[in-house]
């Protein structure tokens, strides 16, 4: 049962309202927002941060934080790309996805081992491993921008449909990678809502000791979670280079902060326990509109960064305030 | 005894060379309310964990429902009908009531998938058992402490429990909530469920339990029927110390009042309160929660400002606009919730002890004089007998009573004239309570003026030289503890004769 009070205590309606207002504003000023090619461009920009946000959200829900997933994505896709190029692989792109996901899994497993078994703090572990993976990539593999194998090039050219803007003579292709995002979101939804594993992620984020006592295998759940983040990062890496048609090892740099900010903006509680996929998607959407569409109303790109910053502060500030006020009301309850 | 639900014999358990349990016995009959008492560190928690299968005993055996075990897994314990309700209730604040009730059961059944319809039916069944009226879709973090406890209890009952262990179940409850918990416990008893009630609160032990077992330093020191136990014996068994029964004779006021309060009022909190306080006196302020007692002393300490009335310190009108003003005028305050309001828990004991006097302990450049800090800390650790090996350990590592002493040390390090203690012994064990009372008397005899705010009537009667009763924000009466009784105080504070 969803009462009005519960509905408005959530972040999703507010983020959605912000998206609607912003897009109407841009539409009114430019007339270009609700055009096929702009929406397709937005969807295209949405794919990579969208994929990354799924794992990021789950980790934050479990009460942890992962800042290494962009480094994992970069290294996994780079090793895969190099191996496939050197072996002169001509086959299907599925192998590329599988290999990259596999490398991601290994790196995620390292995070998982350090966090679940050695019980080290998540931020410290992932800062360390993130730096390690980036260092390996540029040091051991002396990475630089590189070609991609034909399978990946072909995958990048797969188009679902093309939207043409006749006014401006522009056209945009909807990449097939959007299907991967939709598929992953669906699987993540099923996992989080309908499996005990998914409920365990929430339970750990609520109270780890209570989860242990209730009979959740806390270590296994955490191990699974960080491995999953690695797999998702590996898949994201291939999606990214296929859309770009070349492998740039620094393509993900700095993206982790945008993704984490979008996840928190979408109502995921920084201290763990609460967060939805809907909110996460809305958070990413708002960030992408700010980053990509403000230019339509003549706001220069560097200003859009300032806007993004302001939205993050306001959005996370509101969430933090909500948490603080719930805590306060609980304290008052105890006092009376 | 009709039949035995649980029997432990010769349970031993060591952790890295520390012997937590040294051959403990315990026997609980069917439908019996049994109290397990002991001070902090007596081995109560370890024993609970042995019964619930979390710790494997090094020696001894456990008999549950006629079957004998030398070791037990948590799952086995649950399937034998043993449930533990932890002090923090072990709930998930971020999940709904429904999930909180159903998840444990689903995990016991080794379900891999979550079925919300099944969860709802489990949850409805759980709350129906004790007639608990709650919105199953509400998140647990929005519920009161008492409701969270009811969730833990209804969840425990789902597993066909024969024995429910309640670890300090009343520590976060109001008096009214304790009352309804007790009637629920009696109701469970009438269904044949045994309760192991873990507590160090004397009054509760007497009120609820039929038999008791007292542990001290990991050993059985006493057991028997509660009706044959009296306060003195209980305190002796808990602490191993004989407390002198002589009643305290307050020295009485010496000289002119140091603090005079004239008709202070704060809208919605209290009105028209007047009293004088002289050095050497211990003034007890009592009343129910919500009587305005806490708000009144918070005003004295500059946390809130009165709407009207005057406060005089040493005969001069004093405007106490802030805590800083209050400290400068020689007032000190120890809040009731020492954990959240008074201490920096993760910080070292010595840092906590000197925080109010940093000005005096630093040199002309504002840097701390380490030696002075160390000397001050050592002096108070010795004076207050704070039980710690190392003052650089975090305050968190101390027991409740010792934490309270650290807060006291902080104020005593500042040259005080008036010390205000709000609920000075709330949540501390008997030994520490005795120490704190003795300390208050010693300080008063040395010329300190003390105000204690407490609803622990025996405490007020034992320590105060004068008592003020408040009810609904109003001054009811001033009494001499020598000529009044607990029941008189109770009647005055509730307004019910």
Q: What is shown here, in short?
A:
The complex is a heterodimer of chains A (336) and B (497). Chain A has 336 residues and is mainly alpha-helical.
Description:
The complex is a heterodimer of chains A (336) and B (497). Chain A has helices at residues 4-9, 12-30, 36-61, 69-86, 93-117, 122-138, 150-157, 177-194, 196-206, 208-214, 218-244, 255-265, 277-293, 301-335, and strands at 159-165, 170-175. In chain A, 46% of the residues are buried. With 336 residues, chain A is mainly alpha-helical. Chain A starts with a helix and ends with a helix. Chain A has a domain at 32-252. Chain A contains 14 helices and 2 strands. In chain A, α3 (36-61) packs antiparallel against α11 and α13 packs antiparallel against α14. Chain B is built from 17 helices and 20 strands. Chain B is α/β, with parallel strands linked by helices. In chain B, α15 (430-445) links the parallel β17 and β18 (449-453). Chain B has 2 domains: 4-239, P-loop containing nucleotide triphosphate hydrolases (Rossmann fold, 3-Layer(aba) Sandwich); 259-494, P-loop containing nucleotide triphosphate hydrolases (Rossmann fold, 3-Layer(aba) Sandwich), CATH 3.40.50.300. The model of chain B has no long low-confidence stretch (mean pLDDT 85). The radius of gyration of chain B is 25 Å and the shape is globular. In chain B, α3 (97-108) crosses α4 (116-129), α4 (116-129) crosses α5 (145-158) and α14 packs parallel to α15 (430-445). Chain B has helices at residues 44-51, 74-79, 97-108, 116-129, 145-158, 175-190, 202-208, 231-239, 293-300, 323-328, 338-342, 349-354, 370-383, 400-412, 430-445, 457-463, 486-494, and strands spanning 4-15, 18-29, 33-37, 59-64, 67-69, 82-85, 163-167, 194-199, 211-216, 219-225, 259-266, 270-277, 282-286, 308-313, 316-317, 331-334, 418-422, 449-453, 466-471, 474-479. The interface between A and B is medium-sized, with 32 and 30 residues.
């Amino acid at each position: 049962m969803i009462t009005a009070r519960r509905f408005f205590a959530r972040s999703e309606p507010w983020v959605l309202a912000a998206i609607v207002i912003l897009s109407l504003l841009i539409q009114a000023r430019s007339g270009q927002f609700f055009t096929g090619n702009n929406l397709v461009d937005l969807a295209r920009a949405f794919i990579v941060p969208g994929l990354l946000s799924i794992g990021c959200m789950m980790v934050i829900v479990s009460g942890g934080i992962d800042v290494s997933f962009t480094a994992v994505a970069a290294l996994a896709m780079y090793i895969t790309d190099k191996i496939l190029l050197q072996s002169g692989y001509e086959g299907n792109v599925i192998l590329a996805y599988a290999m990259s996901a596999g490398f991601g899994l290994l790196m995620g497993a390292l995070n998982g081992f350090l966090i679940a078994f050695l019980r080290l703090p998540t931020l410290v572990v992932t800062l360390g491993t993130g730096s390690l993976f980036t260092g390996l990539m540029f040091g051991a593999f002396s990475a630089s921008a590189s070609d991609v194998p034909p399978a990946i090039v072909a995958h990048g050219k797969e188009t679902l449909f093309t939207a043409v803007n006749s006014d401006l003579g522009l056209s945009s292709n909807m990449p097939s990678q959007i299907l991967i995002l939709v598929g992953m979101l669906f699987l993540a939804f099923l996992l989080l809502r309908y499996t005990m594993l998914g409920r365990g992620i929430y339970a750990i984020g609520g109270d780890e000791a209570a989860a242990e006592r209730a009979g959740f295998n806390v270590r296994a759940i955490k191990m699974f979670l960080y491995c999953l983040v690695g797999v998702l990062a590996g898949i994201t890496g291939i999606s990214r280079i296929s859309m770009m048609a070349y492998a740039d090892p620094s393509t993900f740099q700095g993206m982790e902060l945008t993704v984490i900010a979008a996840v928190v903006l979408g109502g995921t509680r920084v201290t763990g326990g609460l967060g939805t996929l809907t909110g996460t998607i809305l958070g990413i959407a708002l960030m992408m509109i700010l980053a990509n569409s403000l230019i339509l109303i003549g706001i220069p790109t560097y200003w859009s960064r300032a806007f993004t910053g302001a939205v993050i502060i306001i959005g996370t500030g509101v969430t933090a305030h909500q948490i603080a006020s719930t805590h306060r009301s609980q304290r008052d309850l105890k006092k009376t | 005894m009709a039949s035995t639900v649980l029997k432990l014999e010769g349970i031993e358990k060591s952790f890295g060379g520390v012997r937590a349990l040294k051959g403990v016995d315990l026997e609980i009959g069917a439908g019996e309310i049994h109290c397990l008492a002991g001070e902090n560190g007596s081995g109560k928690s370890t024993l609970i964990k042995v019964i619930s299968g979390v710790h494997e005993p090094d020696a001894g055996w456990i008999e549950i429902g006629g079957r004998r075990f030398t070791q037990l897994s948590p799952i086995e314990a649950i399937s034998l009908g043993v449930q533990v309700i932890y002090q923090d209730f072990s709930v998930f604040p971020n999940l709904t009531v429904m999930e909180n009730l159903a998840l444990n059961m689903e995990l016991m059944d080794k379900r891999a998938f979550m079925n919300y319809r099944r969860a709802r039916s489990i949850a409805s069944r759980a709350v129906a058992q004790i007639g608990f009226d709650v919105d199953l879709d509400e998140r647990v973090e929005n519920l009161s402490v008492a409701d969270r406890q009811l969730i833990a209890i209804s969840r425990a009952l789902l597993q066909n429990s024969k024995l429910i262990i309640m670890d300090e179940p009343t520590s976060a409850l109001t008096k009214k909530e304790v009352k309804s918990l007790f009637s629920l416990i009696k109701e469970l008893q009438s269904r044949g469920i045994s309760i192991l009630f873990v507590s160090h609160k004397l009054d509760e032990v007497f009120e609820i339990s039929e038999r008791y077992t007292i542990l001290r330093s990991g050993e059985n020191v006493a057991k028997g029927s509660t009706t044959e136990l009296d306060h003195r014996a209980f305190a002796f068994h808990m602490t191993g110390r004989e407390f002198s029964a002589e009643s305290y004779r307050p020295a009485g006021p010496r000289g002119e009042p140091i603090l005079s309060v004239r008709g202070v009022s704060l809208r919605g909190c209290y009105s028209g309160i007047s009293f004088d306080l002289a050095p050497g006196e211990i003034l007890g302020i009592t009343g129910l929660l919500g009587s305005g007692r806490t708000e009144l002393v918070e005003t004295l300490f500059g946390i809130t400002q009165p709407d009207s009335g005057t406060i005089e310190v040493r005969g001069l009108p004093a405007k106490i606009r802030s805590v800083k003003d209050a400290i400068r005028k020689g007032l000190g305050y120890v809040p009731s919730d020492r954990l959240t309001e008074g201490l920096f828990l993760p910080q070292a004991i010595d840092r906590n002890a000197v925080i109010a006097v940093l000005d005096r302990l630093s040199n002309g450049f504002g840097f701390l004089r380490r030696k002075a800090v160390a000397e001050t800390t050592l002096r108070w650790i010795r004076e207050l007998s704070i039980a710690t090996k190392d003052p650089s350990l975090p305050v968190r590592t101390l027991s409740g009573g010792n934490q309270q002493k650290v807060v006291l040390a902080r104020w005593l390090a500042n040259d005080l004239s008036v010390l205000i203690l709000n609920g000075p012994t709330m949540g501390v064990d008997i030994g520490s309570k005795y120490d704190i009372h003795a300390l208050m008397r010693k300080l008063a005899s040395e010329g300190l003026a003390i105000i204690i705010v407490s609803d622990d009537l025996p405490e007020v009667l034992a320590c105060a030289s004068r008592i003020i009763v408040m009810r609904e924000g109003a001054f009811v009466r001033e009494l001499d503890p020598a000529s009044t009784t607990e029941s008189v105080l109770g009647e005055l504070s509730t307004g019910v004769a």
